[in-house]
Amino acid sequence: MSTKEEAINKAENFIHYGFAGGLLLVGMGMIGVIAPMLRGAGSKFYGHTSIANLLDVAIGFLLAKGVLNKSRVCAVFLFLYYLVDQAYIFSMGRAGLSNVVWGVIFLWLLISGIIGTFRYHKLVPDATKLPNATKIFIELSSVAALLAGVFTLNAVLTPQATGQYDFSFYNFLDVALFWGLAGGIYFKKSRICAVLLFAYHLWNRFIFGVDFLGIVFGVLYLLGIVGTFRYHLKHKPVTETS
Fold it and tell me: Which end of the chain is more exposed for a tag (fewer CB within 10 A), N or C?
């Protein structure tokens, strides 16, 4: 085996470490989703916390898949997302010794993924032909919009303080908008849908205020804009010349 082949194999091993770190994050997120059901809190499965955990699972899985596809952008985003998530946990005072231990493990795995993807692209000239972050960005934005619709629908189907349900036209329109825009982004790679989704999110934040989950959704919607524009840049129609 040549020196270059050995270097490529080593880079791929680092990529697999990063992918493993992403899968571990997904596994921990799934525990956060399933645990309430095991405690007999199934009726609250689609509560605010469970929606955040579902979003964690979706983001972790799609970014991990991007790392396995040797995407440098996804490797960096997975690392940054983990840092932001941990910063939030520490700021809420919910961190303990286990967070520190797991933090060291995750940092090593995720940094290995970054190193591996950058080394691979340096060693393999045709690496740009591999699946890239564009598809991952579109998928992340679509999943976020779907979950936003689920979250809104849950609010409609949950009794209010008065014991009544809020079956208003605007709430169902809200759900339809989220799911319709998600479909436009995922199936049609629509730049207009991606921009409208982000603008609609900003409008909702202006009305209802900004929180951590709202910031995360906003970032994911921005990625949808980046992904759809990148997709159309790489798939420009070829015009015939006479």
Answer: C
Residues 6+ apart with CB under 8 A from 210: none
Q: Taking a C-beta distance cutoff of 8 angstroms, is the pair 138, 220 a contact?
A: no
Q: What residue spans of the chain are helical by DSSP H?
A: 3-38, 48-68, 72-91, 97-123, 133-157, 169-188, 191-208, 212-234
> What confidence tens digit (pLDDT) does each residue in 73-120 have?
899 999 998 998 888 778 877 767 777 888 899 999 999 999 999 999
Distance between CA atoms of residues 181 and 111, nearest Å: 34
Q: Say how far apart CA 241 and CA 102 lie, in whole Å.
A: 59
CB-based contact 205:214 (threshold 8 Å): yes
- The answer to whether 72 touches 121, Cβ cutoff 8 Å, is yes
The DSSP secondary structure of 177-190, one letter per residue, reads: HHHHHHHHHHHH--
Question: For the whole model, what pTM was predicted?
Answer: 0.70
Gap between the terminal Cα atoms of the chain: 51
61-84 average pLDDT score: 91
Residue 204 buriedness (CB in 10 A; 0-12 / 13-18 / 19+):
middle
Q: Tell me if 123 sits within 8 A of 11, measured CB to CB.
A: yes
